[in-house]
Amino acid sequence: MKRLFLFAVIFSLFAFAFAKEEFGIYNSGGVAWASVTRIQKQSTVSNFVWNDKMVGVFYECQSYNLKNFSEWFQLNFMGRMALYYPYRYYFRNIRQFPAQMLVISLDFFTAPCITFSLKDFVRFDLEPGLHLKYQKQDKWKYWNLGPGIKLDAEFPLSPRWTIVLGGMFSWDNGNLGSNRGFRDFDYVWEYQCNFGVRYSKHQKNKKSYLKGFKKYMEEQAELTSEWIEKIRAQSDSTEDDSEENPAQ
Predict the structure, then answer these.
(1) Does pTM top 0.85 for this prediction?
(2) What pLDDT, in 10s, does the model give residues 147-190?
(3) For every residue of 45-80, which 3-state class applies, written as one string?
(4) What are phi and psi of 197, to 5 degrees?
(5) Tens-digit pLDDT profile for residues 28-83
């Protein structure tokens, strides 16, 4: 874990040191959902399995123009923070009810971002990095730390607005909190998904759906106008022929 964290820090310093002049930061946010599974192995009975469902909001920042290898392949860096409220608890698929309402979870993820672009109409971000979660419950305060991987799909709605869909999976060490030594977990994993938007004032999308649709409508309007003018010209030509050759 220490080596992974040290690698993330060194990569960040190296990336910012060699960034281009047009280097900048994207900001995005939206709603998120998460599911955390914790397993404690048992030898005489079936394993103890806890599962928590959470809903919340997230904020994410991501660099752009850090390192562009080509028009369709770029390397950047990102950081994500999410605030969750655990709304469902399960133990062995049986719902549990917390004794207090003040239960929250903070989630952090940072990683290098590898971007693949499909003609700027769809962009995919592959982000292998480090995941950290804090969760407060009735008895314990959990700290989860481990490697994770995140995949985002970006859809440029307009030159400045982008829709962001993402999913993440992490495999964590769940014994860093107050539960350590009392309720140790053998396996802890988590998956998350999010839906958000991004507004960019300085770095506009080269292509977008609304801009493409507007251009398409303008082209159709131009073709329709040309078609109408052609029909009018043919009609005028027919009327002129009728005047020159009146019916006998």
Answers:
(1) no
(2) 999 999 999 888 888 999 999 999 999 999 888 888 889 999 99
(3) CCCEEEEEEEEEEEEEEEEECCEEEECCEEEEEEEE
(4) -130, 155
(5) 999 999 999 999 998 888 899 999 999 999 999 998 877 776 666 788 899 999 99
